Description:
eight-stranded mixed β-sheet, Rossmann fold, 17 strands, five-stranded parallel β-sheet, Dna Ligase, domain 1, 407 residues, D-amino Acid Aminotransferase, Chain A, domain 1, binds adenosine-5'-diphosphate, 22% strand, binds magnesium ion, alpha/beta, single chain
Amino acid sequence: MLDAATTKRLRAVLAERPDRPLGVVLDVGFTNGLASARALRDAGAPVIVVDHRRGALGFKSRGVAPVLAPDPAVDEEGFIDALAELAQVAGRPGYLFPTHDAHLVAVSKHADRIAPLVLPGSHWDVIGPLMAKIPQLELAERAGVPVPRSFMPTTRAEAETAAAQIPYPAIAKPSIGIAFKHAEKVQVLQADRPEQLVDAFERIAATGDRAIFQEVIPGGDDALWTVGSFSTDGGRAVGTFCGRKLVQRPPIFGTCRVGEARWADEPVAYADQLLRTSGFDGITQIEFKRDPRDGSYRLIEINLRTWQWHSLARRCGVDLVGMCYRTACGEDVGRAISGPRHDGRRWVAAVPHLKAGFAGREGLRDIARPLVGLIEEPVFSLRDPKPGAVQAAGLVVGPVKRRLRGR
Ligand SMILES: Nc1ncnc2c1ncn2[C@@H]1O[C@H](COP(=O)(O)OP(=O)(O)O)[C@@H](O)[C@H]1O
Ligand SMILES: [Mg+2]
């Protein structure tokens, strides 16, 4: 049930922009959701942000209506019930912007229960098959896009055969991954020997998922390229950003800590081909790793949603979320590409970056280096200062509390 305070705030946000469809951001715990909410507000939407944590970063953003709802990775039914109620109370159409897979899956699978809140673009018939990694590898083959050497065993015997053939080090990863990541709190399982891969097969199967065995493409975090797109009319990209990660946390198999804009024609062409072949409409992040052995860009994964550092795309003139919302509203948004003119512009979330640097006892110079120059800091904003203030306060309050507790 939406409580009285939530409903009051919601009505106020709706009244401020009476003629526009809602922009609803699902999960605003970190920069992905916060950046989406800000982009939607700037595109003229009345913005609703949904999360399962009262302290979610995006709840602090200016001018939005926060709605507390269960985490769909834990309680999909409860999450959909909450959105259905929101749809009813709001009483107007709206576009959904999921920032994580669990939310994307829940709203596309149960679209009939939450109308007129809809995904702006493709629906479950396209999303269902495309969001899992095994069909993504099959799509890459059809589209002529290179992939890491991969095996998709279905039985333990097949897993043993594959584990005997694959080069090491190797990894095992789940095809869908939502249940696996929730259970194991890691994204991939690393293996140096066949027994470890077979064990990983069993652990992934235990979460009801299928396993992919993959050779590890060598190279550092800066070999991970991202093409961010907004596509319409059956996979035609009208907004294109290209960049790469510089630092992940933890290294090699973690999430982005520092990213940069850098244009490269080859991954962009591959992404366009994947989008056209799949016919997907909406926002995507397609990740490749550049293989230093032959210089090829190999598909790592396709995310059918925004990603953690997408505000860098907007900073480079490619406002994927704004374009998507405005297109859904029937406006002509033209074509936008980041191009080489933004090469070297970095994304770094200052507070998590500092925290990670101090925790890892990195030298001050190493910590400071990414923060200098042309950067896009996704939290601090003079127009919307509260999220930054809260994060900065956390930087101070955490250590002080620990000191007071005598640790
Ligand atoms: N075959 C591979 N070779 C090297 N690194 C990989 C490979 N597959 C995945 N990774 C690394 O692991 C990270 C997580 O894997 P990914 O396939 O993106 O799954 P997800 O993001 O759904 O957990 C990637 O960002 C990349 O850094
Ligand atoms: Mg990934």
